[in-house]
Amino acid sequence: MNRKTLVLPAMIGLLAPVLTACGGSGNGGGSDDAIVVGTTDRFAASKDAPAPLDPAYAYDVSTWNVLRQTLQTLMTLPDGGGDPQPEAAQRCGFSDSGNERYACTLREGLKFANGEPITADDVKFSIERALRIQADSGVFALLSNIDTIETKGDREVIFHLKTSDATFPFKLSTPVAGIVNPDAYDKNKLRDGFAVDGSGPYTLKAEVKNDELVNAVFTKNPGYQGQLKVKNEKVELRSFAGADAMGTALDKGDISVMTRTMTPAQIRKLQNAKSTSIDLIEQPGLEIHYLGFNTNDPSVKSKVVRQAMAQVINRGELVSDVYGTGAEPLYSMVPTTVTGHANSFFNKYGEPDTAKAKALLSEANVTTPVKLTLHYTDDHYGPATKEEFELLKKQLNDSGLFEVDIKGEKWATYQPNERKGKYEVYGMGWFPDFPDADNYLAPFLDKNNTIGSPYANPEIRNTLIPESRRQADRLTASRSIEEIQTLVAEDVPVLPLWQGKQYIAARDDVTGAERTLNSTASLQLWELGRGAGS
Protein backbone atom coordinates (compact mmCIF):
# COMPACT_ATOMS: atom_id res chain seq x y z
CA MET A 1 0.00 0.00 0.00
CA ASN A 2 1.28 3.44 -0.91
CA ARG A 3 0.70 5.78 2.00
CA LYS A 4 1.31 9.44 2.66
CA THR A 5 0.43 11.21 5.88
CA LEU A 6 -0.46 14.84 6.41
CA VAL A 7 -0.03 16.04 9.96
CA LEU A 8 -1.98 19.10 11.10
CA PRO A 9 -1.79 20.69 14.55
CA ALA A 10 -4.11 18.91 16.96
CA MET A 11 -7.11 21.08 17.88
CA ILE A 12 -10.00 20.69 20.30
CA GLY A 13 -12.36 18.04 18.95
CA LEU A 14 -10.14 17.23 15.94
CA LEU A 15 -7.00 15.14 15.55
CA ALA A 16 -4.64 15.04 12.59
CA PRO A 17 -6.13 13.33 9.51
CA VAL A 18 -4.49 10.38 7.75
CA LEU A 19 -4.34 10.28 3.95
CA THR A 20 -3.98 7.02 2.04
CA ALA A 21 -3.17 7.18 -1.66
CA CYS A 22 -5.43 5.03 -3.81
CA GLY A 23 -6.38 4.34 -7.46
CA GLY A 24 -8.47 5.91 -10.24
CA SER A 25 -8.34 8.31 -13.17
CA GLY A 26 -10.17 11.28 -14.68
CA ASN A 27 -10.52 14.95 -13.87
CA GLY A 28 -13.85 15.33 -12.03
CA GLY A 29 -15.08 18.10 -14.28
CA GLY A 30 -18.48 19.76 -13.85
CA SER A 31 -20.19 22.74 -15.42
CA ASP A 32 -17.63 25.46 -16.16
CA ASP A 33 -14.98 23.22 -14.58
CA ALA A 34 -16.54 23.37 -11.14
CA ILE A 35 -15.10 21.08 -8.48
CA VAL A 36 -17.72 18.34 -8.21
CA VAL A 37 -18.37 16.78 -4.81
CA GLY A 38 -20.44 13.63 -4.42
CA THR A 39 -22.75 12.79 -1.53
CA THR A 40 -25.41 10.20 -0.78
CA ASP A 41 -27.35 12.79 1.22
CA ARG A 42 -30.86 13.22 -0.12
CA PHE A 43 -32.64 16.58 -0.19
CA ALA A 44 -36.37 16.13 -0.66
CA ALA A 45 -39.37 18.41 -0.31
CA SER A 46 -42.53 16.66 0.81
CA LYS A 47 -45.96 17.37 2.24
CA ASP A 48 -44.57 16.89 5.75
CA ALA A 49 -41.35 18.82 5.04
CA PRO A 50 -41.97 21.31 2.21
CA ALA A 51 -39.19 23.73 3.26
CA PRO A 52 -36.04 21.60 3.65
CA LEU A 53 -33.59 24.52 3.21
CA ASP A 54 -35.32 27.13 5.33
CA PRO A 55 -32.94 27.81 8.25
CA ALA A 56 -35.95 28.05 10.56
CA TYR A 57 -36.71 24.41 9.71
CA ALA A 58 -33.54 22.60 8.57
CA TYR A 59 -32.01 20.46 11.27
CA ASP A 60 -29.83 17.69 9.89
CA VAL A 61 -26.23 17.55 8.75
CA SER A 62 -27.08 17.37 5.04
CA THR A 63 -29.25 20.49 4.85
CA TRP A 64 -26.95 22.37 7.21
CA ASN A 65 -24.07 21.57 4.84
CA VAL A 66 -25.95 23.47 2.14
CA LEU A 67 -26.85 26.38 4.40
CA ARG A 68 -23.31 26.80 5.75
CA GLN A 69 -22.13 27.61 2.22
CA THR A 70 -24.84 30.20 1.57
CA LEU A 71 -25.80 31.89 4.84
CA GLN A 72 -23.70 33.91 7.25
CA THR A 73 -23.96 33.62 10.99
CA LEU A 74 -22.66 36.12 13.52
CA MET A 75 -20.14 33.56 14.75
CA THR A 76 -18.39 30.59 13.16
CA LEU A 77 -16.33 27.64 14.35
CA PRO A 78 -12.68 27.90 13.37
CA ASP A 79 -11.08 25.19 11.26
CA GLY A 80 -10.11 22.42 13.66
CA GLY A 81 -12.46 23.43 16.48
CA GLY A 82 -11.99 25.73 19.44
CA ASP A 83 -14.00 28.73 20.56
CA PRO A 84 -16.32 30.42 18.04
CA GLN A 85 -14.95 33.42 16.17
CA PRO A 86 -16.76 36.41 14.62
CA GLU A 87 -18.01 35.88 11.06
CA ALA A 88 -20.74 38.33 10.03
CA ALA A 89 -19.89 40.10 13.27
CA GLN A 90 -16.80 42.20 13.72
CA ARG A 91 -16.82 41.34 17.41
CA CYS A 92 -19.08 39.62 19.94
CA GLY A 93 -18.91 38.95 23.66
CA PHE A 94 -20.73 38.71 26.96
CA SER A 95 -21.09 42.14 28.50
CA ASP A 96 -21.99 40.96 31.99
CA SER A 97 -20.48 38.62 34.56
CA GLY A 98 -23.48 36.27 34.54
CA ASN A 99 -23.33 35.26 30.85
CA GLU A 100 -26.85 36.59 30.25
CA ARG A 101 -26.18 39.60 27.99
CA TYR A 102 -24.39 38.98 24.69
CA ALA A 103 -23.56 41.86 22.35
CA CYS A 104 -22.38 41.76 18.73
CA THR A 105 -21.27 44.46 16.32
CA LEU A 106 -21.66 43.71 12.59
CA ARG A 107 -18.87 44.17 10.09
CA GLU A 108 -19.01 47.44 8.20
CA GLY A 109 -20.48 47.31 4.71
CA LEU A 110 -22.01 43.84 5.09
CA LYS A 111 -24.37 43.00 2.19
CA PHE A 112 -26.67 40.25 1.02
CA ALA A 113 -25.65 38.53 -2.21
CA ASN A 114 -28.12 40.72 -4.13
CA GLY A 115 -26.27 43.83 -2.95
CA GLU A 116 -28.72 45.02 -0.31
CA PRO A 117 -27.09 46.15 2.96
CA ILE A 118 -27.40 44.00 6.09
CA THR A 119 -28.39 45.75 9.29
CA ALA A 120 -28.84 44.76 12.90
CA ASP A 121 -32.60 44.69 12.24
CA ASP A 122 -32.05 41.91 9.67
CA VAL A 123 -30.25 39.83 12.30
CA LYS A 124 -33.09 40.45 14.75
CA PHE A 125 -35.66 39.53 12.07
CA SER A 126 -33.89 36.28 11.16
CA ILE A 127 -33.56 34.95 14.70
CA GLU A 128 -36.96 36.11 15.91
CA ARG A 129 -38.47 34.50 12.81
CA ALA A 130 -37.13 31.06 13.79
CA LEU A 131 -38.43 31.53 17.32
CA ARG A 132 -41.82 32.73 16.09
CA ILE A 133 -42.37 29.90 13.59
CA GLN A 134 -41.22 27.16 16.01
CA ALA A 135 -40.95 24.54 13.24
CA ASP A 136 -41.64 20.96 14.27
CA SER A 137 -38.02 20.06 13.45
CA GLY A 138 -37.23 21.51 16.89
CA VAL A 139 -34.27 23.53 15.62
CA PHE A 140 -35.64 26.71 17.22
CA ALA A 141 -34.80 25.20 20.62
CA LEU A 142 -31.17 26.14 20.03
CA LEU A 143 -32.25 29.77 20.38
CA SER A 144 -35.04 29.34 22.92
CA ASN A 145 -33.00 30.77 25.78
CA ILE A 146 -33.21 34.20 24.13
CA ASP A 147 -35.54 36.50 26.05
CA THR A 148 -35.34 39.64 23.92
CA ILE A 149 -33.19 41.02 21.10
CA GLU A 150 -32.22 44.68 21.17
CA THR A 151 -30.68 46.67 18.32
CA LYS A 152 -28.71 49.91 18.49
CA GLY A 153 -28.23 51.65 15.18
CA ASP A 154 -27.48 49.60 12.08
CA ARG A 155 -24.66 47.47 13.46
CA GLU A 156 -25.19 46.55 17.11
CA VAL A 157 -27.28 43.57 18.27
CA ILE A 158 -27.74 42.70 21.95
CA PHE A 159 -29.18 39.36 23.09
CA HIS A 160 -30.76 39.25 26.53
CA LEU A 161 -30.90 35.64 27.71
CA LYS A 162 -33.39 34.06 30.11
CA THR A 163 -30.63 32.20 31.96
CA SER A 164 -26.85 32.00 31.89
CA ASP A 165 -25.51 30.14 28.87
CA ALA A 166 -21.79 29.92 28.20
CA THR A 167 -22.57 27.90 25.04
CA PHE A 168 -24.58 30.72 23.42
CA PRO A 169 -21.72 31.84 21.10
CA PHE A 170 -21.67 28.28 19.70
CA LYS A 171 -25.41 28.47 19.02
CA LEU A 172 -24.95 31.70 17.07
CA SER A 173 -22.64 29.75 14.75
CA THR A 174 -25.40 27.33 13.68
CA PRO A 175 -27.53 27.80 10.53
CA VAL A 176 -30.74 28.41 12.50
CA ALA A 177 -29.09 31.73 13.43
CA GLY A 178 -28.27 32.42 9.77
CA ILE A 179 -29.02 35.93 8.51
CA VAL A 180 -31.71 35.86 5.80
CA ASN A 181 -33.03 38.61 3.55
CA PRO A 182 -36.40 39.79 4.93
CA ASP A 183 -37.51 40.53 1.37
CA ALA A 184 -37.32 36.81 0.54
CA TYR A 185 -38.58 35.23 3.78
CA ASP A 186 -42.00 35.67 5.39
CA LYS A 187 -41.68 36.38 9.10
CA ASN A 188 -44.56 34.06 9.97
CA LYS A 189 -44.15 31.02 7.73
CA LEU A 190 -41.52 28.77 6.20
CA ARG A 191 -40.17 29.27 2.69
CA ASP A 192 -41.03 26.19 0.62
CA GLY A 193 -38.61 24.73 -1.89
CA PHE A 194 -34.85 24.95 -2.27
CA ALA A 195 -34.03 28.65 -2.70
CA VAL A 196 -31.67 30.33 -0.23
CA ASP A 197 -30.97 34.07 -0.02
CA GLY A 198 -28.16 35.11 2.29
CA SER A 199 -24.68 36.63 2.41
CA GLY A 200 -22.45 33.57 2.70
CA PRO A 201 -19.36 32.68 0.66
CA TYR A 202 -21.51 31.24 -2.16
CA THR A 203 -24.80 31.75 -3.92
CA LEU A 204 -26.88 28.66 -4.66
CA LYS A 205 -28.48 27.43 -7.87
CA ALA A 206 -30.63 24.40 -7.06
CA GLU A 207 -31.24 21.77 -9.74
CA VAL A 208 -34.44 19.98 -8.74
CA LYS A 209 -36.07 16.82 -10.10
CA ASN A 210 -39.25 15.25 -8.73
CA ASP A 211 -39.13 17.49 -5.64
CA GLU A 212 -35.54 16.45 -4.90
CA LEU A 213 -32.41 18.57 -5.03
CA VAL A 214 -30.12 16.51 -7.26
CA ASN A 215 -27.38 19.07 -7.81
CA ALA A 216 -26.48 22.15 -5.79
CA VAL A 217 -24.28 24.59 -7.71
CA PHE A 218 -22.38 26.94 -5.43
CA THR A 219 -20.89 30.01 -7.12
CA LYS A 220 -18.46 32.28 -5.29
CA ASN A 221 -20.22 35.35 -3.91
CA PRO A 222 -18.09 38.34 -4.99
CA GLY A 223 -19.64 40.52 -2.29
CA TYR A 224 -18.96 38.14 0.58
CA GLN A 225 -17.35 39.73 3.63
CA GLY A 226 -16.24 37.44 6.40
CA GLN A 227 -13.26 35.58 7.72
CA LEU A 228 -13.50 32.59 5.36
CA LYS A 229 -11.03 32.39 2.47
CA VAL A 230 -12.77 31.01 -0.62
CA LYS A 231 -10.26 29.07 -2.72
CA ASN A 232 -12.42 28.25 -5.75
CA GLU A 233 -14.94 29.88 -8.08
CA LYS A 234 -17.55 27.14 -8.19
CA VAL A 235 -18.40 23.84 -6.49
CA GLU A 236 -21.16 21.38 -7.33
CA LEU A 237 -22.62 19.12 -4.65
CA ARG A 238 -24.11 16.17 -6.53
CA SER A 239 -26.54 13.81 -4.80
CA PHE A 240 -26.31 10.08 -5.60
CA ALA A 241 -28.89 7.40 -4.91
CA GLY A 242 -26.26 5.18 -3.31
CA ALA A 243 -22.62 4.82 -2.34
CA ASP A 244 -21.83 2.43 -5.22
CA ALA A 245 -22.99 4.95 -7.82
CA MET A 246 -20.99 7.68 -6.07
CA GLY A 247 -17.87 5.47 -6.03
CA THR A 248 -18.23 4.69 -9.73
CA ALA A 249 -18.47 8.41 -10.50
CA LEU A 250 -15.22 9.01 -8.60
CA ASP A 251 -13.45 6.19 -10.44
CA LYS A 252 -14.62 7.55 -13.81
CA GLY A 253 -13.62 11.10 -12.93
CA ASP A 254 -17.17 12.45 -13.04
CA ILE A 255 -16.66 13.79 -9.52
CA SER A 256 -13.46 14.94 -7.81
CA VAL A 257 -14.40 14.42 -4.17
CA MET A 258 -16.49 11.77 -2.41
CA THR A 259 -17.99 12.54 1.00
CA ARG A 260 -20.56 10.88 3.19
CA THR A 261 -21.58 8.21 3.16
CA MET A 262 -19.14 5.57 1.97
CA THR A 263 -19.70 1.93 2.75
CA PRO A 264 -17.23 0.02 4.96
CA ALA A 265 -16.35 -2.07 1.89
CA GLN A 266 -15.51 1.06 -0.13
CA ILE A 267 -13.30 2.36 2.67
CA ARG A 268 -11.39 -0.93 2.87
CA LYS A 269 -10.97 -0.99 -0.90
CA LEU A 270 -9.59 2.54 -0.98
CA GLN A 271 -7.29 1.83 1.97
CA ASN A 272 -5.81 -1.19 0.21
CA ALA A 273 -5.50 0.21 -3.33
CA LYS A 274 -1.96 0.58 -4.64
CA SER A 275 -2.30 3.39 -7.19
CA THR A 276 -1.79 7.00 -6.17
CA SER A 277 -4.35 9.20 -7.94
CA ILE A 278 -7.04 9.17 -5.21
CA ASP A 279 -6.43 10.07 -1.58
CA LEU A 280 -8.53 8.59 1.21
CA ILE A 281 -8.62 10.95 4.17
CA GLU A 282 -9.52 9.57 7.59
CA GLN A 283 -10.34 11.81 10.54
CA PRO A 284 -11.64 11.25 14.05
CA GLY A 285 -15.34 12.01 14.10
CA LEU A 286 -17.91 13.35 16.53
CA GLU A 287 -20.81 11.55 14.86
CA ILE A 288 -22.76 9.24 17.16
CA HIS A 289 -25.57 6.74 16.56
CA TYR A 290 -28.16 5.69 19.10
CA LEU A 291 -31.55 4.13 19.70
CA GLY A 292 -34.29 6.49 20.84
CA PHE A 293 -37.40 5.45 22.77
CA ASN A 294 -40.91 6.83 22.87
CA THR A 295 -41.15 6.46 26.62
CA ASN A 296 -44.95 6.90 26.45
CA ASP A 297 -45.38 3.84 24.24
CA PRO A 298 -46.69 0.83 26.23
CA SER A 299 -44.02 -1.51 24.83
CA VAL A 300 -41.09 0.51 26.22
CA LYS A 301 -42.78 2.67 28.85
CA SER A 302 -41.20 0.61 31.63
CA LYS A 303 -37.58 1.62 31.99
CA VAL A 304 -36.81 -2.00 32.89
CA VAL A 305 -37.47 -3.00 29.26
CA ARG A 306 -35.07 -0.30 28.09
CA GLN A 307 -32.51 -1.35 30.70
CA ALA A 308 -32.76 -4.95 29.53
CA MET A 309 -32.04 -3.87 25.96
CA ALA A 310 -29.01 -1.94 27.21
CA GLN A 311 -27.87 -5.10 29.02
CA VAL A 312 -28.24 -7.36 25.95
CA ILE A 313 -26.94 -5.29 23.02
CA ASN A 314 -23.34 -6.08 22.11
CA ARG A 315 -21.76 -2.89 20.77
CA GLY A 316 -18.41 -4.53 20.12
CA GLU A 317 -19.94 -7.13 17.81
CA LEU A 318 -22.08 -4.47 16.15
CA VAL A 319 -19.08 -2.31 15.32
CA SER A 320 -16.69 -5.08 14.26
CA ASP A 321 -19.20 -6.95 12.09
CA VAL A 322 -20.79 -3.92 10.40
CA TYR A 323 -18.44 -0.93 10.49
CA GLY A 324 -14.97 -2.41 11.07
CA THR A 325 -12.36 0.26 11.73
CA GLY A 326 -14.80 3.03 10.78
CA ALA A 327 -16.44 3.17 14.22
CA GLU A 328 -15.96 2.29 17.87
CA PRO A 329 -18.42 1.30 20.64
CA LEU A 330 -19.95 4.21 22.55
CA TYR A 331 -21.17 4.02 26.15
CA SER A 332 -22.50 7.55 26.54
CA MET A 333 -24.27 10.11 24.39
CA VAL A 334 -21.15 12.27 24.83
CA PRO A 335 -18.32 11.04 22.54
CA THR A 336 -14.99 9.96 23.96
CA THR A 337 -13.10 12.99 22.59
CA VAL A 338 -15.41 15.63 24.09
CA THR A 339 -14.74 17.18 27.50
CA GLY A 340 -17.12 15.71 30.07
CA HIS A 341 -17.43 12.23 28.52
CA ALA A 342 -18.12 9.40 30.98
CA ASN A 343 -18.60 5.71 30.18
CA SER A 344 -21.91 5.74 32.05
CA PHE A 345 -23.56 2.82 30.26
CA PHE A 346 -20.54 0.56 30.66
CA ASN A 347 -20.26 1.57 34.32
CA LYS A 348 -23.86 0.48 34.91
CA TYR A 349 -24.25 -2.54 32.61
CA GLY A 350 -20.74 -3.79 31.92
CA GLU A 351 -20.39 -6.46 29.23
CA PRO A 352 -23.52 -7.82 27.50
CA ASP A 353 -25.22 -10.30 29.83
CA THR A 354 -28.50 -12.04 29.01
CA ALA A 355 -28.84 -13.48 32.51
CA LYS A 356 -28.76 -10.02 34.07
CA ALA A 357 -31.31 -8.75 31.56
CA LYS A 358 -33.58 -11.71 32.32
CA ALA A 359 -33.34 -11.01 36.05
CA LEU A 360 -34.27 -7.34 35.50
CA LEU A 361 -37.40 -8.26 33.55
CA SER A 362 -38.35 -11.06 35.93
CA GLU A 363 -38.11 -8.85 39.03
CA ALA A 364 -40.39 -6.31 37.37
CA ASN A 365 -42.87 -9.04 36.30
CA VAL A 366 -42.45 -8.16 32.62
CA THR A 367 -43.81 -10.89 30.34
CA THR A 368 -41.27 -12.14 27.82
CA PRO A 369 -40.60 -12.14 24.99
CA VAL A 370 -41.20 -8.38 24.71
CA LYS A 371 -42.51 -7.57 21.23
CA LEU A 372 -40.92 -4.55 19.56
CA THR A 373 -40.34 -3.01 16.15
CA LEU A 374 -37.05 -1.21 15.61
CA HIS A 375 -37.42 1.53 12.99
CA TYR A 376 -34.58 2.97 10.92
CA THR A 377 -34.03 5.14 7.86
CA ASP A 378 -32.64 3.29 4.84
CA ASP A 379 -31.42 6.27 2.78
CA HIS A 380 -29.83 8.77 5.17
CA TYR A 381 -26.95 7.28 7.18
CA GLY A 382 -25.59 4.93 4.54
CA PRO A 383 -26.31 1.39 3.30
CA ALA A 384 -24.74 -0.22 6.39
CA THR A 385 -27.71 0.93 8.50
CA LYS A 386 -29.86 -1.99 7.35
CA GLU A 387 -27.12 -4.48 8.23
CA GLU A 388 -26.73 -2.78 11.63
CA PHE A 389 -30.42 -3.20 12.44
CA GLU A 390 -30.48 -6.78 11.22
CA LEU A 391 -27.72 -7.52 13.72
CA LEU A 392 -29.50 -5.63 16.51
CA LYS A 393 -32.60 -7.71 15.80
CA LYS A 394 -30.56 -10.91 15.97
CA GLN A 395 -28.87 -9.95 19.24
CA LEU A 396 -32.15 -9.11 20.94
CA ASN A 397 -34.04 -12.13 19.60
CA ASP A 398 -31.23 -14.56 20.39
CA SER A 399 -31.54 -13.56 24.04
CA GLY A 400 -35.01 -15.10 24.10
CA LEU A 401 -36.23 -12.02 25.97
CA PHE A 402 -37.40 -10.07 22.93
CA GLU A 403 -39.36 -10.67 19.76
CA VAL A 404 -38.10 -7.93 17.48
CA ASP A 405 -38.96 -6.91 13.94
CA ILE A 406 -37.26 -4.13 11.99
CA LYS A 407 -38.61 -1.65 9.44
CA GLY A 408 -36.76 0.80 7.20
CA GLU A 409 -38.23 3.97 5.70
CA LYS A 410 -37.12 6.87 3.55
CA TRP A 411 -35.77 9.87 5.46
CA ALA A 412 -38.39 12.23 4.01
CA THR A 413 -41.12 10.31 5.86
CA TYR A 414 -39.04 8.78 8.63
CA GLN A 415 -37.93 12.07 10.19
CA PRO A 416 -41.43 13.63 10.49
CA ASN A 417 -42.90 10.33 11.75
CA GLU A 418 -40.25 10.05 14.45
CA ARG A 419 -40.97 13.57 15.67
CA LYS A 420 -44.68 12.77 15.82
CA GLY A 421 -43.99 9.85 18.15
CA LYS A 422 -45.07 7.14 15.70
CA TYR A 423 -42.17 4.79 16.56
CA GLU A 424 -41.63 3.02 19.86
CA VAL A 425 -37.93 2.44 19.14
CA TYR A 426 -35.98 4.17 16.39
CA GLY A 427 -32.40 4.55 15.20
CA MET A 428 -30.89 7.97 14.71
CA GLY A 429 -27.51 9.56 14.14
CA TRP A 430 -26.32 12.83 15.61
CA PHE A 431 -23.78 15.22 14.20
CA PRO A 432 -23.23 17.94 16.79
CA ASP A 433 -24.43 21.47 16.26
CA PHE A 434 -21.23 22.44 18.06
CA PRO A 435 -18.50 20.39 19.79
CA ASP A 436 -19.58 20.69 23.42
CA ALA A 437 -21.01 18.02 25.72
CA ASP A 438 -24.15 20.13 26.22
CA ASN A 439 -25.04 19.55 22.58
CA TYR A 440 -25.08 15.77 23.05
CA LEU A 441 -27.44 15.99 26.03
CA ALA A 442 -29.78 18.99 25.97
CA PRO A 443 -31.14 18.33 22.43
CA PHE A 444 -32.45 14.95 23.65
CA LEU A 445 -33.33 15.70 27.27
CA ASP A 446 -34.43 19.32 27.54
CA LYS A 447 -37.83 20.85 26.90
CA ASN A 448 -38.61 21.13 23.16
CA ASN A 449 -35.97 18.48 22.46
CA THR A 450 -35.14 17.72 18.84
CA ILE A 451 -36.42 14.13 18.85
CA GLY A 452 -39.73 15.01 20.46
CA SER A 453 -39.01 12.71 23.40
CA PRO A 454 -41.66 12.75 26.16
CA TYR A 455 -39.00 11.78 28.71
CA ALA A 456 -38.66 14.52 31.32
CA ASN A 457 -36.27 14.35 34.25
CA PRO A 458 -36.71 17.45 36.47
CA GLU A 459 -33.20 17.19 37.92
CA ILE A 460 -31.67 17.17 34.46
CA ARG A 461 -33.86 19.94 33.04
CA ASN A 462 -34.15 22.27 36.00
CA THR A 463 -30.82 21.84 37.75
CA LEU A 464 -28.04 20.04 35.88
CA ILE A 465 -28.36 21.54 32.38
CA PRO A 466 -28.65 25.15 33.68
CA GLU A 467 -25.83 24.49 36.15
CA SER A 468 -23.49 23.25 33.41
CA ARG A 469 -24.29 26.23 31.18
CA ARG A 470 -23.27 28.70 33.85
CA GLN A 471 -19.68 27.45 33.60
CA ALA A 472 -17.59 29.22 30.97
CA ASP A 473 -14.81 26.75 31.83
CA ARG A 474 -16.21 23.56 30.28
CA LEU A 475 -13.90 21.39 32.38
CA THR A 476 -15.58 22.84 35.47
CA ALA A 477 -18.96 22.01 33.91
CA SER A 478 -17.98 18.34 33.69
CA ARG A 479 -19.36 17.47 37.13
CA SER A 480 -22.93 18.38 36.12
CA ILE A 481 -22.47 16.83 32.69
CA GLU A 482 -21.28 13.53 34.18
CA GLU A 483 -24.27 13.45 36.55
CA ILE A 484 -26.59 13.82 33.54
CA GLN A 485 -24.91 10.86 31.85
CA THR A 486 -25.37 8.73 34.97
CA LEU A 487 -29.10 9.50 35.05
CA VAL A 488 -29.42 8.72 31.34
CA ALA A 489 -27.80 5.31 31.87
CA GLU A 490 -30.28 4.63 34.66
CA ASP A 491 -33.44 5.70 32.80
CA VAL A 492 -32.36 4.88 29.21
CA PRO A 493 -34.50 7.37 27.24
CA VAL A 494 -31.78 6.99 24.61
CA LEU A 495 -29.25 4.18 24.12
CA PRO A 496 -25.87 5.12 22.58
CA LEU A 497 -24.40 2.56 20.18
CA TRP A 498 -21.31 3.77 18.35
CA GLN A 499 -19.10 6.72 17.45
CA GLY A 500 -17.93 7.04 13.86
CA LYS A 501 -14.89 8.30 11.98
CA GLN A 502 -15.01 10.70 9.03
CA TYR A 503 -13.82 9.88 5.53
CA ILE A 504 -13.30 11.83 2.34
CA ALA A 505 -11.87 10.50 -0.92
CA ALA A 506 -10.41 13.06 -3.32
CA ARG A 507 -8.54 13.02 -6.59
CA ASP A 508 -4.96 14.16 -6.21
CA ASP A 509 -5.44 17.27 -8.37
CA VAL A 510 -7.71 18.67 -5.65
CA THR A 511 -6.21 20.65 -2.80
CA GLY A 512 -7.66 21.31 0.65
CA ALA A 513 -9.64 18.06 0.90
CA GLU A 514 -8.18 17.37 4.34
CA ARG A 515 -9.84 20.60 5.57
CA THR A 516 -13.18 20.07 3.85
CA LEU A 517 -14.78 18.45 6.90
CA ASN A 518 -14.46 20.14 10.27
CA SER A 519 -14.78 18.48 13.67
CA THR A 520 -18.60 18.60 13.56
CA ALA A 521 -18.78 16.96 10.09
CA SER A 522 -19.65 20.29 8.48
CA LEU A 523 -18.63 20.71 4.84
CA GLN A 524 -16.24 23.58 4.18
CA LEU A 525 -16.37 23.64 0.39
CA TRP A 526 -14.48 26.93 0.30
CA GLU A 527 -11.31 25.00 1.24
CA LEU A 528 -11.24 23.06 -2.04
CA GLY A 529 -8.96 24.13 -4.86
CA ARG A 530 -7.16 22.82 -7.93
CA GLY A 531 -3.53 21.79 -7.86
CA ALA A 532 -1.01 19.59 -9.58
CA GLY A 533 -1.44 15.84 -9.16
CA SER A 534 0.92 14.33 -6.60
Key words describing this protein structure:
single chain, 534 residues, alpha+beta, 4-stranded antiparallel beta sheet, 14 helices, 24% strand
List the helices and strands and how they pair.
Blueprint: E1 3-4, E2 18-22, E3 35-39, E4 43-44, H1 61-70, E5 75-76, E6 85-86, E7 89-94, E8 101-106, H2 120-133, E9 146-152, E10 156-161, H3 168-171, E11 202-209, E12 212-220, E13 234-239, H4 243-252, E14 257-258, H5 264-272, E15 278-293, H6 303-312, H7 315-323, E16 327-329, H8 344-349, H9 354-363, E17 370-377, H10 384-398, E18 402-409, H11 411-419, E19 425-430, H12 442-445, H13 458-469, H14 478-491, E20 494-507, E21 510-511, E22 529-530
Parallel strand pairs: 3-13, 3-14, 17-18, 17-19
Antiparallel strand pairs: 1-2, 2-15, 4-12, 5-6, 7-8, 8-10, 9-10, 11-12, 12-13, 14-20, 15-19, 15-20, 16-20, 21-22
Quick structural gist:
Pfam families: SBP_bac_5. The chain has about 525 residues and is α+β, with helices and mostly antiparallel strands.
